[in-house]
Fold this sequence. Notes:
Helix content is 36%, strand content 20%. It contains 17 helices and 18 strands. The chain has helices at residues 2-21, 40-53, 84-96, 101-104, 107-113, 117-120, 127-137, 142-155, 171-182, 195-199, 202-206, 245-253, 269-276, 311-319, 326-329, 336-343, 413-428, and strands at 67-70, 186-194, 213-216, 220-225, 228-233, 260-263, 284-289, 322-325, 351-358, 370-373, 378-382, 387-391, 393-395, 398-400, 405-406, 429-434, 440-444, 449-455. α14 links the parallel β7 (284-289) and β8 (322-325). The N and C termini lie far apart (88 Å). This is META domain protein. Residues 349-453 form the DUF306 domain.
Amino acid sequence: xxxxxxxxxxxxxxxxxxxxxAQPGSSPHVxxxxxxxxxxxxxxxxxxxxRVTDRDGDDYVPPAQRIAVFDNDGTLWPExxxxxxxxxxxxxxxxxxxxxPKLAADPMVQAALAGDVKKLLAGKHYDGLxxxxxxxxxxxxxDEFNARVETWRETTRHPRFQKAYTDLTYQPMQELLKYLxxxxxxxxxxxxxxxxxxxxxxxxxxxxxxxxxxxxxxxTKFEFRDGKPVLIKTMDQAFVDDKDGKPxxxxxxxxxxPIACFGNSDGDQAMLEYTTIGNPLPSFGMLVHHTDAExxxxxxxxxxxxxxxxxALAAAPANGWNVVDMKTDWKxxxxxxxxxxANKVSDLxxxxxxxxxxxNRGVVDRAHTTLEIADDGTASGNTSVNRYSGKAKISGxxxxxGRLVMTRRAGPxxxxxxxxxxxxxxxxxxxxxxxxDGLLYLIDAEGNEIVRFxxxxx
Length: 458
């Protein structure tokens, strides 16, 4: 009996030692990052986490010091065609302008409603953007602002992917957030976006509580309204949490130097440097490089609106920062529901459309030139002389009409000329958009709107 008892004790001791060696939240049989391909970038993340959580290793970092910071726009979710908070501001202006003539008369509001982003971003301090932020973000209580953000995220959809903006997070980064937290890291957002804007939904979307969101801020004012204490948003003493402001924000609002930093643009370079250069603790830096136009977007030096990546990309090798190539490093970009939505033909696109203009030359009066899109992607219609049909390739806001089969009847010369222009235009189409006016615009590879349609109601 004594021998068997000793054996049991030895086995228990062995199991206990093995458990102590295991990394918290990890299992040798479970891939913590299943949406990542088996590349050096994935292995680098895992190796770093293993090193700083190994109690017996030289690089062990106590949990209290395991701080990981993440940029948001372009790192955790997209920032194209515009940063999502800018989309929120535009929606607010569209909602309010018809009822507020003074607001609608503001030149920067008019620029926003016209989609003139260049005008809004002109100047060192983005004066136009700051103007419309002041008009939409101030003079209201924090509760009123939160309610407007919630309404936006519940009712507005991304123009390409037709999903709520807060459903468009990168699945590989969601897995990374969880993996780090499972291994004793505390995760923070450090973003140029508005802190109040992100705090409304950061916990529900990323599992990051509001107190762990560092963003651009301005003073709030305490007062009583209707006998109740409230906080009023202002633009006083605005702090922009971008570029050199990010390390400042980390110091002011977190109070610990991070050991892991994740970004995607030159705006994140300063906090990557702060995290990895001269840090007395082991550190890790990573940049997300947008290289996948098919599944998301591809840009670096020339982004659609924000997210320029030039100097940080050049500095990455010397500083040991890992650069994620979206196209090759990520097996999957979106969660399953978002992938299905992106591949589904938009309900807004399905239907019968009447051409109103072809390449800015109008159309022949009383000519019935049409395009019909079915929910299975079938494209058909009438040139006003001949019928045509084929299969469209549609993904998000991308559309290619491909080879179209057409009847060969003759008609009046003016209609035949229009048919030639119409079919040539369809062959050049690469994208579409449906405007706030309900019109369908077909767009070529250079971004020109080459055909405009109105919906033919049943």
